Amino acid sequence: MEKRAVFGGWVLPSVLLAPQLAVTIVFFYWPTSQALWSSFLLEDAFGLSSRFVGLENYRTLLTKSDYFRAAVTTAIFASLVTTLSLSMALLLAVQADKSIRGAGIYKTLLIWPYAVAPALAGVLWLFMFQPSLGVVTRGLVALGIDWNPLLRGEHAMTLVVLAAVWKQISYNFLFFLAGLQAIPKAVIEAAAIDGAGPTRRFWTIVLPLLSPTAFFLLVVNIVYVFFDTFGIIDAMTAGGPSKATETLVYKVFSDGRLGGDLGGSAAQSVILMVIVVALTAVQFRYIERKVAY
Amino acid sequence: MATLSLDGVCKTYPGGVVAVKGVSLAVPDGAFAVLVGPSGCGKSTLLRMIAGLETVTAGTIRIADKVVNEVEPADRDIAMVFQNYALYPHMSVFDNMAYGLRNRRTPVDEIRARVGEAARLLEIDQLLARRPRELSGGQRQRVAMGRAIVRKPAAFLFDEPLSNLDAKLRVQMRVEIRKLQKRLGTTSVYVTHDQVEAMTMADVLVVMNKGGADQIGPPREIYQRPATQFVAGFIGSPAMNFLPGEIGGDGRSVTVAGTRIGLPEGVRQQAGRRVTVGLRPEDLVPDAHGALEITIDLVEHLGTDTIVHGALSGLALSAKQLVVRLPGDREVADGFRIQFSVPGDKLHLFDAATGARV
Amino acid sequence: MVERRSFSDLLAHAILLLGVGILAFPVYLCFVGSTHPQDVISNGQMPLTPGPLLFDTYYRTLFVGSDRTTRDPVSGMLINSFIMASIIAVGKITISIVSAYAVVYFRFPFRMAAFWAIFMTLMLPVEVRIYPTYKIVADLGMLDTYVGLTVPLIASATATLFFRQFFMTIPDELIEASKLDGAGPVRFFIDTVVPLSRTNIAALFVILFIYGWNQYLWPLLITTRGDMQTVVIGIKKMIVTSDALTEWPIVMATAMLAMLPPVAVVILMQRWFVKGLVETEK
CA-CA distance, B119 to B126, in Å (whole number)? Predict the structure, then answer.
């Protein structure tokens, strides 16, 4: 993994690395360490002084019901979005992998939503499902559903889930398609000659060979739900109604907005950091082991 | 146990490209048929049509007297060994071999027995727990064959299975494959571009050229009486020499390279016909009074034989090259001149325009 | 699919068309919404087909903005978004390519430490360090500036890793030949490494441009002035909770305009986009 031939000296490389390291230190490590340090402090009511309290902030958080509720919300959100967008993307990828006419055009038409900002996706779906003037709302009302995401938590959650799934299908589709196309055609043909019909082939050959991709996407999707959906939530529900759609990240944002509990907010950030590090570590470990068949 | 027969089988792709034109072939039960030819001649396409992996545009394919054109590959009772083995990467060797039987709901005991038997036959019984990525090329090849054998199909299909092996292993494996097939008695169709493999393994040899079968028959017959110039030049190593010639006025001799050679007794050709004369390197006999003379410019010592390349003397413009096989103990070197003669019955005459044997 | 079944092909087309339709539907409605007058929409009477007001609405959107809320012309926001996305994309690429070059082609003490320091930032998305970072930017006086908008997002580990991975595939023989030809590190970089990296740079540019354009949380915090808003933020501000006041045609037109550049980039540069996406994740 090392280059055999290199250049000597250390002045030039230091100069080259300086910009990145500078920004990294100033805007990554310094704030992170600040957050870490703050999480162990408790400020007084006026914000004038603070004292070291160890893990007290964390303890408070983990026992507070609204943090717990945000965690549950995030978990529900994550499972729904992940399951829905992965399965729909897989379905589409399997169809696109068949050699039918226009496969390339379908691919282009299925990838472009990746370019849409999460916040914009939120706005689009908001427009469609707006309680008083949304087009889809009309349809729902006609079906007898009293649609009101501004009042009913589960409606708001549904809305946010739909927008998040919509946005993420393209990404998953792309990776699933690449994974499917990486399976050698001869292996599929051998399975066919061995008497396996399309369904049996899918479950016994295709899915197992697709599992590294699937696992990778699972982790990526979870990270996406945790962090990148901020824009969707902010644009659509601002965490409401009554915190029904407040995820952990959103809570960091809204708690911080209100000012006050600096220590608590920092502790929340640190907990999120730990989660991401864990997820990323799991991913690297797994990918390393399963690299090539 | 089954016969395989092809009747006027054709394949044209949607764009208009003709891959196979009208091949008819009868493979007796238990015979080993080889499809040989250069890249693009249609042999793999033909094999895939027999397997059911490509559709048939015209003609019929019969396995065990049953027309299978519309039958899916899974139901044709065939097994195939792919060029890159196509083993299931995520399964152990045992599961790779058992897969086909499991799909047909064979009882577990029988699966174990059949896989064990095939593994012993192929000497891979120590490898049953391993994954394909832990095996060498030769081992993977055996597993691919094992997967085919356990099914006890009506026919085996081989798609250039030895191409990815090194030369020595290739020679060893082709003997093993042939012995195995003889022992099992399963009708087989084998595709290769290597004419040595083709000659040594075939019961029925099919030489393909540009989508059509130029000649079908036992290897010996194809070697001794090639039906077209293409077959004559493709089969045999070193390749046959070709010289332009013309049939003599009486139809009983041919003039080539400035000499007249008499045709065998009882043979009469169309007088004045333009032909291409084929001369195999081993049929040129050193003869101090021979009419053909070459000046050697390259000598290849093989041990038992010596191959010499030389330019024909006495030919007007292009100094035509001849390749001649001599006994290994003969003393030769660059610059030597040797005279040859050719017996009339060793001439292969092909129509100069069509390449067909005359 | 090995078997020949036209039913299977038909099913494939049906499912794919359904998929394409589902993905396109919200955007289609958005477009329709941008062509109808305000009152038609507010009364819940918007039809499923486009309306008459194409040019007016877009003109107003671009140059006048939403009357009742932000009053900022969207064209200004589009420019901000464009500047931000371009700076981020170009900045990230430049910084990362030279960093990767330093890490791969030199040996010096702390080299691995520097590499790991960069690598670790993969695990820290901006949402996690949001408030402390905000405080630093504010203290440095960079609020409401392009610098503040872009610089904190510019040191990306992904791009550096991406280039490093690519550099590892460049044969050693090239640098050896260059050295024999008397080239120093700078020459080698400019004459050999950069030209070889062209497709990778293009691929990364697509991904980073979209990333920069679609940024939400960070610009939300950093920009307070109306004229510094990016279009993605601007849209949010146009939607007021009491929606009788929201000018939906303008909002929809803004959304269409906001989606246009990144989607165009993806479609026009599809091959690079796919390459960039697939290879940055390895």
Answer: 8
Helix (H) or strand (E) run with residue B267 in it: none
Indicate the number of domains in chain C: 1
Residues 6+ apart with CB under 8 A from C139: none
| Boundaries of domain holding A224 | 68-292
Asked if A125 and A166 count as a contact pair (C-beta separation under 8 A), the reply is yes
Lowest mean pLDDT among A80-89, A93-102, A274-283, C125-134: C125-134
Handedness of CA C3, C5, C8, C14 (dihedral sign): positive
Q: What's residue A134's pLDDT?
A: 80
In a domain, C246, yes or no: yes
Q: Quick one: which of A293, C218, C36 has its CA closest to B96?
A: A293
Q: Considering only residues 19 to 48 of chain A, which have any Cβ-Cβ distance to chain C shorter than 8 Å?
A: 19-21, 23-32, 34-35, 38
Q: How confident is the model at residue A288 (pLDDT cuts 50, 70, 90)?
A: low
Q: What's the pLDDT at B32? A: 96
Inform me whether the pLDDT recorded for A291 exceeds 60: no
Instruction: Name the pTM for this structure.
Output: 0.83
Distance separating alpha carbons of residues A64 and A44, to the nearest angstrom: 19
Q: How many CB atoms lie within 10 A of CB C179?
A: 15
Please tell me if residue B53 touches chain A, with a CB cutoff of 8 Å.
yes
- CATH number, domain with residue C142: 1.10.3720.10
Range of the domain at C126: 74-281
Question: With b meaning 16 or more CB within 10 Å and e meaning fewer, what string describes A79-115?
Answer: ebbbebbbebbbbbbbbbbbebeeeeebbebbbbbbb
Neighbors of chain C with 3 or more C-beta pairs under 8 Å = A, B
In the prediction, which pLDDT does B197 show?
93
* 8 Å CB contact of C136 and A3: no
Position with higher pLDDT, C69 vs B59:
B59
Q: CB neighbours of C116 closer than 8 A, spacing ≥ 6?
A: none
As given in the structure block, the two tokens for residue B298 are 């390259």
